[in-house]
Amino acid sequence: MTDHNSPQGIRAEAIESLLIDKGLLSAEVVDAVITTYTERVGPMNGAKLVAKAWSDPAFKADLLADATKVVNGLGFEGGQVDKLIVKECGLMDHHVVVCTLCSCYPWAVLGLPPAWYKDPEYRSRIVREPRKVLAEMGLELSPEVRIHVWDSSAEVRYLVLPLRPDGSEALSEGELEQLVSRDSMIGVTKLPSL
Ligand code: FE
Questions:
Q1: From the candidates 89, 103, 152, 181, which is the catalytic residue?
Q2: Which residues contact 87 (CB under 8 A, 6 or more apart)?
Q3: Catalytic-residue membership of 99
Q4: Domains of the chain: which residue ranges?
Q5: In the chain, which end has fewer C-beta atoms inside a 10 angstrom radius, N or C?
Q6: Which is nearest to 151 in space by CA: 99, 94, 106?
Q7: Quick check: is 103 catalytic?
Q8: Pick from 172, 165, 163: which is nearest to 194 by CA?
């Protein structure tokens, strides 16, 4: 899976059209692949990383030090990542991800990007007025919390490690995984307390 505007992306689209024309591939199959990336593979992989990082300090240290190595070592169904950086939210620091140029996104861990992520309005405004945009999206951060905006590219993708929800102390890694939303890993929402 690649960017729409990369040579690989253009080639992929051309091959898809050709295969559909020749009757070798149906649009339904393509839709099924997209659904897989949207609803199954992607966000679940990211949630696994987050839940494991919350549960295992050594894993978290490795993830923050070199997420590319950790993710590629896990052999996720979504494929390899070229360069992935994980940013950990703290009480005084919030992280949010954008691609100001187009729609670069960590497919292997988050699946397909949501429509708003590709919207020119989000891409330009989150950089200029992140606090306001986040508030509009439902995330009110107090003025003393610093907001860090990370601009993705074809070379570097980012994943946000959200704060572990209050009240989740007794949960297992598997239960924690269920709490982690896609949007919390982009950084446009926080996970609610239990
Ligand atoms: Fe992009």
A1: 103
A2: 95, 97, 148, 150, 158, 159, 160, 161, 187
A3: yes
A4: 7-39, 42-186
A5: C
A6: 99
A7: yes
A8: 165
124 is catalytic: no
- What's the fold here for domain 42-186? Nitrile Hydratase; Chain A (3.90.330)
Q: How far is the CA of 5 from the centre of ligand 1 (A)?
A: 9
Phi, then psi, of 88 in degrees rounded to 5: -95, 125
| Position 147, amino acid | I
CA 131 to chain CA centroid, nearest Å: 20
Whether 95 contacts 88, CB under 8 Å: yes
- Each residue's pLDDT expressed in tens, for the chain with a length of 194 residues: 445 566 666 777 777 777 777 777 777 777 777 776 666 666 789 999 999 999 999 999 999 999 999 999 988 876 677 899 999 999 999 999 999 999 899 988 988 888 999 999 999 999 999 999 999 999 999 999 999 999 999 889 999 999 999 999 999 999 999 999 999 999 999 999 99
Q: What is the dihedral sign for C-alpha 74, 85, 83, 32?
A: positive
Distance 13 CA to ligand 1 centre (A): 17
pTM for this one?
0.82
Q: Give CA–CA dist 135/55, Å, rounded.
A: 30
Length of the chain: 194
Distance 120 CA to ligand 1 centre (A): 11
Q: According to the model, what pLDDT value does residue 1 have? A: 41
